[in-house]
Amino acid sequence: MCGIVGFIGNNCEQNLIDALYKLEYRGYDSAGISVIKDGKIDTIKTAGEIKNLDEMLTTRNSNTAGIAHTRWATHGASNVFNAHPHNSCNNKISIVHNGIIENYIELKQDLIKKGVVFYSETDSEVIPNLIYKSNNKSFIKKFISACNLLNGSYAIACLNSTEKKLYLAKNKSPLYISKLNTGEMMCASDIICFESKAVDYYTLEDGEFAVISKDNIRFYNSSFKIIKKQSSKLGKFDFSFELGNFSHYMEKEICEIPKCIDNLARIYSSKNLTEILINLNINSFNKIKIIGCGTAYHASCMGEKLLQDVLKVDVSSFVASEFRYSKQLIDNSTLCIFVSQSGETADTLEALKLAIELGATTLVITNTMHSTMAKLAHVVLPTCAGVEKSVASTKAYVCQICVFYILKRCFDSQINKKCFDFYENLENLSVLLKNQKYDYLDSFVKLLSDENELYFIGRDKDLISSNEACLKLKEVTYINANAYPAGELKHGFLALINQSSYMFVIATEHHLLEKTLNALKEASSRGANIILVTQFKNEASSMCENVKFIYLPCFDEDLMSIVSIIPFQFLSYKLSVSKNINPDKPRNLAKSVTVE
Ligand code: G6P
């Protein structure tokens, strides 16, 4: 994973630090910076968050070339030795790297034989030393031939002490370049670094290289030939990156949900998107596969339930890393739907490439329209949630479900010759959610703050919501929360239950209420402390004793999974804060997982 940035121009150090903060969602285990100063490489790095590096900087306004990095540790612990940039052992070449070099052990052994000394446990440190030991004459040839030896994934920005230039390489990990409005040059893992600073940017593709100087960008292929590239326009970024009056991005992003749904409903009513949807002829597919990771996988499961409701063909959902490595029966009558907030998650991206290779029609549901997935897929549907910064996905998840709801209505209209209509329901949902208050959760925070384990049960869509609620709790509170199908209780799980167990039961589907309440009673009679989450207030309260309730407002059953998940997003957030955890940056995690 990791975020990398390079800059040539005024206030180099400050520009690099500002950009690093924007890339922090890619990892925050350590950070570092290298700039050229008086013909030498000057490197400062530290373990921990970018603010630690920020505090260490003494110079911020050099007119020079520099590179910087924020790390999510893969090879080697998160300490200062493994922090990037990594320099060649003669200290004349410095690199930042995002990705994994799979053949680094053999490369390292070879370099050690040639006298190279290594100072870190990382795979990345081979890169500057391969360049250093290259026999080629020009630096660009040294750089390209060294990168040609690498297997794996990489976005690399490289400095050498004798030139005010940046050398870039890319394979699988994203890398963008822009000449800023002020005339300065910048490259970065994400175009958000160019936000409000540029009008257009270049996307480096796999196997391409670039050399950036003070006023020129030159592109090369792997055979050292100069190539021409077209720039893309930098679109407008939705919603501000600022926290405003909120304490954390997670809180801000949950509070933005009603506005996001409203926005999404409007955007999907536009001619452009309606046409895209109508052209997606469901009758041309004989099966649908939905693929994602983490929260996006839970949205995929929810998509499966919603679509299977109206479709006569088989719909199934997969975790991307499993999808890639199991036998898939895919042909040109298969529709593969990929769900990804970032559009860059490595396993989902590789699964998308596999589906394209096997001839499927591919559709990506993403929050990042400039992402690699959005570029590769046949059809792209935006989630319109605006930038999501907190590691735990909240508003993007809700918007992913809304897109599946719209798809369901679209396919339903095609199959049953009905009118295609979703706007009113989403608008009403937005209004309903705007009026909800969540203060009652404070009493649950008190009740649960010392718990190390929490249990959830549910059926059908409520089981998926239970899984997503558990994921939120694990991510930001470190409580071991686990969900089970309500019907599976007696097949092992009941053995875990005793009088100190807390169990949430989510029951929002009326036809399953009675059955779920039976399971609730089985757990309750073994002493479990039950919290029932439902909109069926009257029926449930008459059937259950000694149970705490979270009452939900009633809404269309297709969208109840949105109504029921928000209390758990807030509960996770509040519990996280009560435990003095920063919910935006939970330990060991990152927002965008760009390594497999
Ligand atoms: C990471 C994030 C999750 C996210 C998952 C998939 O694990 O921490 O919040 O759901 O990646 O990311 P994607 O960008 O593909 O939705």
Can you describe what's shown?
It is a single chain. Helix 9 packs parallel to helix 13. The strands form 4 sheets. The protein has an 8-stranded antiparallel sheet with strand order 3-2-4-1-10-9-11-15, covered by helices on one side. A 7-stranded antiparallel sheet has the order 5-6-7-8-12-13-14. The N and C termini lie close together (9 Å). 36% of the residues lie in helices and 24% in strands. The protein has 596 residues and is of the alpha/beta class. The protein has 19 helices and 25 strands. 6-O-phosphono-alpha-D-glucopyranose binds next to helix 9.
Core attributes:
single chain; alpha/beta; 36% helix; 596 residues; globular; 25 strands; 19 helices
